[in-house]
Amino acid sequence: MLAISDVDQNPLPENTESDSATPRVLSILSLVLERMVTRNEMLSLNSEGGRRLGKNLEVFHGVRPPAITIPKYLDRIYKYTNCSPACFVVGYIYIDRLVHRHPGSLVVSLNVHRLLVTSIMLAAKILDDEHYNNAFYARVGGVTNVELNRLEVEFLFMLDFDLTVTSRVFESYCLYLEREMLMWNGTKVHNESGTRTNAIEDIAEISVEDMESFSSSISNGVLA
Known about the structure:
By secondary structure, this protein is mainly α. The protein folds into 2 domains: about 25-160, Cyclin-like (Cyclin A, domain 1), CATH 1.10.472; about 165-220, no CATH class. It has helices at about 25-45, 70-80, 85-100, 110-125, 135-140, 145-160, 165-185, 210-220. Helix 5 crosses helix 6. The longest helix has 23 residues, at about 25-45. InterPro entries: Cyclin-like_sf, Cyclin_P/U, Cyclin_PHO80-like. Belongs to the cyclin family. Cyclin U/P subfamily. This is Cyclin. One of its GO terms (molecular function) is protein kinase binding.
């Protein structure tokens, strides 16, 4: 069980970095993840004999769903680790990649928090020049250092150590998240044929730029 809740009785010291508005990408990811978890919980309940799906992800399962919500958890990670907003997108890509490689594995309330802290920590190690170590992420995430180390190894092997995210893939996921935000706000998104779409695979290819420009666009643009 995660040792934190929405009202943390033992918070970490305040980040000494200058405060800035929480990136909008965190709110969008929270929305997408909450909808995913709700859908998967329904699938699990409706499965044969009430059988819990997603056995491959059971190493990430807690005894019960954590008290802290997904939005509060993402905000906590951002507040204390000061990782770049791009890390949250790449962390989401890792989770999406993992469940596609292991069909039947569902992201549910029992595992979503551990998946998030593990994937975001890995993304920070790949993207950010400076990042905190596993022990600090464990404290922020409400797990022990030993557990987070174990989850990191498990996550890496489940991904076959494939942590590469091309600029085209990164941009596609950014577009997908932007469309999710627009549709949540009641704005209909259509492709050229006039058919509504929200699948990552349906996003049209656009020009490729380097990862730094994408990180900047997330910080300062639509998803910031």
